[in-house]
Design goal:
This protein has twelve helices and five strands. It is an alpha/beta fold and about 375 residues long. Helix 4 links the parallel strand 1 and strand 2. Helix 3 packs parallel to helix 10. It is elongated, with a radius of gyration of 33 Å.
Amino acid sequence: MHHGIQPSVSMPPPAAPYAPPTKPAVGHVRHARHALVDTEPGLPAPVLAAAAGARKAVLVPVLTALAIGTVFVAVYLAAFHAPSARHQPVGIAAPDKVAAHTELALNNEAPDGYTFYRYPDAAAARRAVTHDEVPAALVADGRGTRLLVAGAEGPSTVSSLDMALTGAVGKPLPVKDVLPLVAGDSRGLSVFYAAFGVVLAGFLFAVSSYQIAPRLRLAVRVASMLVFAAASGLMVALIAHTALSALPAPFAVVTLVVGLLAWAAAAAAGVLLRVFGPLGMPVASVVLLILGNATSGGILPTTFLPSWLSPLASILPPAAAVRGLRGAAYFHDAHLTGAVATLAAWGLGCLAVQYVLDRVAARRTPAATANLAFAR
């Protein structure tokens, strides 16, 4: 028997264990799907992963901005490219013959353009002008024929009525400004700019609030909203009333009305964002920033708005705030109570809608969870 070293038999190496295809490394997104790269250092991977595709990323911003811009241009040009009066109040304190001649001439010039109010004498007409019953009044008595106007209504209103009544009477009229604008508000636009800025701030507050914390409890959201409203009221009062003397209303009244406007704008934008989801931002832009400010009466009286736009002036928050601030500043608090009530109703109404939506969502969540568990 031959003994020796046995020859070794070579065995094949063991097969490598199966490894599934690996996912892209963290921080990288499939270029074919999103056409996006991490061009910002430290951008979280979930942000990139949730990004829209290239087509959506290009088209959605273009279409959204174009739609909002189109609505803005269409509304403002339709309202202000050639404004004409519709049922513009005009006071007349004159003998019947003069009054009838004036009314007939104005009606022939602009049917449905004016609504006439007769007053027994110059004192009654002056009182009506200073309490914002009419922006101007034609007076004819033993002292001659003249036009009483409230400069606080704004130069555009005064000039349009002066031109119309001068044409109706047939001769130049001496104009007496019985309620002029203050020196810090020489064009009468301070109230409009204040309201526009606050509405814009309320819109941005709602957008940022929902972007940062979309599921924030309503009580916490309301607390944040009230802090914003109070700060807005104080800020505008300090700038417009104290620093620039542009709003001669009392400091507390400016703070209250502006604060309520900020609250109403933020609450309305929040509800629209909640109801319409991704479309909430353009919808809120159109309702508050475009329609709201166009119908506020800060640029021209609401009686110069077209018929399809003027009804909004009686219900939207910016118009209510402009009426209240202007009335408190110049017209013996005319319209102030109604403005406060309208703004408070907007704020409370929107919060009530928000509460209902939260309750409905809270009831749906357990039901959806139970259905999912049953399906499993």
